[in-house]
Write a structure and sequence with these properties.
Elements: H1 9-26, H2 32-37, E1 40-41, H3 45-48, H4 59-73, E2 86-87, H5 90-112, H6 118-130, H7 133-146, H8 156-160, H9 165-169, H10 173-182, H11 186-195, H12 201-212, H13 215-229, H14 248-260, E3 262-264, E4 269-270, E5 275-276, E6 283-285, E7 290-291, E8 296-297, E9 300-303, E10 315-316, E11 321-322, E12 326-329, E13 333-334, E14 339-340, E15 345-347, E16 350-352, E17 357-358, E18 363-366, E19 377-379, E20 384-385, E21 390-393, E22 399-401, E23 406-407, E24 412-415, E25 421-423
Parallel strand pairs: 3-6, 4-7, 5-8, 7-10, 8-11, 9-12, 10-13, 11-14, 12-15, 13-16, 14-17, 15-18, 16-19, 17-20, 18-21, 19-22, 20-23, 21-24
Antiparallel strand pairs: 1-2, 24-25
Helix pairs in contact: 1-5, 4-5, 5-6, 7-13, 10-11, 13-14
Length: 424
């Protein structure tokens, strides 16, 4: 395809047909105030049509497009720097982003293959992503709300304006936020604040998160990359053909890693209402990993052990907390409402039940020998594991820790040969 035909009359005709349908879909998701502050940076079509290297989009353009998409899910958050080059009317803004996405996706296909049908795939995949804006906007909102778990959102400004440390220390704010997430109702938290006479706090805290917290942005970039990597059709428009885009999802993940030190593989399945705390220290997820909703994740590694193309990364349930420098490796499963402490390492075929509390500097793993394939380790529900404990299985038989078991700190637990725990 010649560079000059990237935005040819055929493209314009098909684009406007889809654009009109899209605008009907997304207009209701924006308030008057959001439309007032919406700003999308435009890029010259001549620049968009330029091929970089073997045809792949250059990183400067990618940064601009990701910022524009971020502006679509959180208007006013991106603060585009060139007012004379901005699109502020919704129809113009979405059309601008459609052109930018089409150029990136089209050139990604060009770089990977010379298939003649890549233009049709690129156009429909572009609008399949834009059709997801209501979902992406809602996810971004809940990820911002989840960040309110951080006690630091009660900052010096709020304290200066009449809030006291003593009063706040008595409140179980985290539980209120978790309940709001579980029931998908901001009103629960707002009502809690209203009873305390703190009505204005919610808007300020959400603004604080949007303006300064990186975690929700990281998760949004991942959502974009994950959407581009998916195969299934768009739920709200089954007529749009979606195909996995080559190269581009990985480029988005790499860009996010460069700026935020959060290396989230684009194919990791991640729920919403998650809080990434201090992600600049490094968070890593793998291709086959799964993270639920309502989690709090500190800098950690959710990595793989196997080099085979199979499930090889951890599966994390809902409302799980993972502490700083924890390492989970292989097909580890962590049940809902469980906690994994700081510096803990869990590896191999390990399944942690719901409501478990794993202390700090704990090691839990299956140990392979030259002759024995170890069995799995199963922790029942509501198990408590003290700091510095080691639980290992070198037996071919599964090791099971019963429900509500309490393992003291610095204990060494092994398989007794019959699947029961034995303390050394």
């Amino acid at each position: 395809m010649a560079e000059s035909t990237l935005f040819d009359p055929s493209y314009e005709s098909r684009k406007h047909l889809l654009l009109n349908q899209l605008l009907e879909q997304i207009r209701p998701i924006y308030s008057v105030d959001e439309l007032r502050v919406l700003r999308v940076d435009s890029i010259s079509r001549d620049i968009l049509s330029l091929r970089s290297g073997r045809g792949f989009v250059n990183r400067d353009i990618l940064e601009t497009v990701l910022g524009n998409l971020l502006e679509c899910v959180a208007p006013g958050s991106h603060n585009a720097p060139h007012p004379q080059h901005q699109k502020r009317i919704l129809a113009e803004a979405i059309e601008e982003i459609a052109d930018q996405l089409f150029a990136m996706i089209s050139q990604s296909f060009l770089a990977a293959s010379n298939e003649p049908l890549h233009e049709d795939c690129a156009l429909e995949t572009t609008f399949a992503l834009l059709w997801e804006l209501p979902r992406l906007k809602q996810r971004a909102l809940w990820n911002r709300f989840a960040s309110l778990r951080d006690p630091a959102v009660w900052d010096a400004y709020l304290l200066y304006n009449g809030q006291s440390h003593e009063k706040l220390a008595e409140l179980d704010i985290g539980t209120q936020i978790d309940n709001a997430i579980a029931q998908r109702s901001f009103e629960l938290y707002q009502g809690f604040l209203r009873e305390l006479g703190l009505v204005s706090v919610f808007d300020y805290q959400m603004q604080l998160v949007m303006s300064t917290y990186p975690g929700w942005r990281i998760l949004f970039y991942h959502d974009v990359a994950n959407t581009l990597a998916r195969l299934e059709p768009t739920e709200s428009n089954l007529d749009l053909c979606r195909v996995p885009v080559p190269l581009l999802p990985r480029a988005i993940a790499e860009l996010c890693g460069r700026y935020y030190q959060a290396d989230l593989h684009p194919e990791t399945q991640i729920g919403d209402a998650n809080f990434l705390e201090h992600p600049h220290r490094g968070i890593t997820t793998g291709q086959t990993g799964v993270i639920g909703s309502g989690c709090v994740i500190y800098p950690c590694t959710l990595g793989g052990l196997s080099t085979k193309v199979r499930l090889r990364h951890p599966i994390i349930g809902d409302f799980v907390r993972i502490g700083t420098d924890a390492g989970l490796f292989g097909p580890v499963k962590i049940g809902d409402y469980s906690t994994v402490g700081t510096n803990t390492e869990i590896y191999g075929f390990v399944e942690i039940g719901q409501g478990c509390r794993i202390g700090s500097s704990v090691v839990i793993g299956t140990v392979r020998s030259s002759t024995i394939q170890p069995g799995e380790i199963h922790l029942g529900e509501n198990v408590r594991v003290g700091d510095g404990t080691i639980i290992e299985n070198i037996s071919a038989i599964d090791l099971t820790i019963p429900d509500k078991a309490e393992i003291p700190a610095r204990t060494h637990v092994v398989n007794d040969g019959f699947g029961h725990p034995r303390v050394l």
